[in-house]
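Changelog-linked ticket: magnesium ion example.
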Amino acid sequence: METALEAPTPPTDPRAHLASPVTRAALRIQHVMLEGVRQRLSEQGFTELLPPVIGPVTDPGARGAKQVDVDYYGHRYKLMTSAILYKQASLTAFDKIFCVAPNVRLEPLETSSTSRHLAEFHQIDVEIAGASREDAMAVAEGVVEHAVRRVVERAPHELDALGRNPDAFAALLSGTGFERRTHASAVRDLHAMGHPQNADAEIDWAGEALLSAKADLPFFLTDYPKGSRGFYDKEDPGHPGRLRNFDLLAAEGYGELCSGGEREHDYGTIIARMRETGENPAKYAWYLKMVREGIPASAGFGIGLERLTRYVSGTHSVWQASAFPKVPGTVTP
Ligand code: AMP
Ligand code: MG
């Protein structure tokens, strides 16, 4: 029988993939988590909206990934790489929203071996009007804790079938909360480990795995350098060049689970940030019109659903946490 921890080959036959006990257990765990996330966020006053799949423009901040064009009645539209622009738009009507959003990113071929990248995946996407980064981090922490607790309580047989010992979550479920560290301190740690991490960039895949492997519960990294992210992560007014943002990294080497932060909502600043990041503001006409008319300050985050499922299930690769996985470069239905 296929086991969770062997390095398996990505599936090309959907029936065989779905029939695998590993896929079935991981998807049951995913279902239990989604149920829990919806319940928790609903209880906290969030409204679930269904996100659009195509639009004239999408999130440009996906590192190294290509966007997919769609012919929309003669107009060039994009498949959503993330729901960020629509999350901000939704706050003109609702204070607290979430969606389970499908994203398509043609990731570089070298990501096919990271065990963490799909070309099509989903995010549990949350946005909160008037919130700070710290507020958003508290909600993200609560969502992850609740999802894991629910799996341990309600899907013990699935964890057992995957050979995933629930003790792996003892620290997470002890209620101590997740550590918060800065990007700069993570860079120092990586240098001390002999890893050549660029201090002005995203933590690279190998660095992410190294930091994550040292942890026994998820942890936050904050204050990423400007230039490592899209125009919508707010710059810290007290520390120019630093962003009021965060990532949540899983324990045990599973790597990044979530990215989030406070959002830029000032029209002039957004235009300036677009120019700095090489984006043409003219492409973002609908978004900029809305911003000029006024959108609320906000903070939010997106948790990669398949990444979270992989971590909780302990599967080798993220595609084992998807019913119909698209592994970068592998042609599948
Ligand atoms: P990002 O906006 O790139 O930080 O993406 C938000 C979250 O989505 C990340 O923290 C990951 O959990 C997840 N994610 C991003 N890219 C991928 C991918 N190619 N495959 C699977 N999950 C992804
Ligand atoms: Mg990220």
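Closing comment: Example verified and attached. The pocket of magnesium ion (ligand 2) is lined by residues 247, 256, 259 (CB under 6 Å). The domain at 21-321 is CATH 3.30.930.10 (BirA Bifunctional Protein; domain 2).
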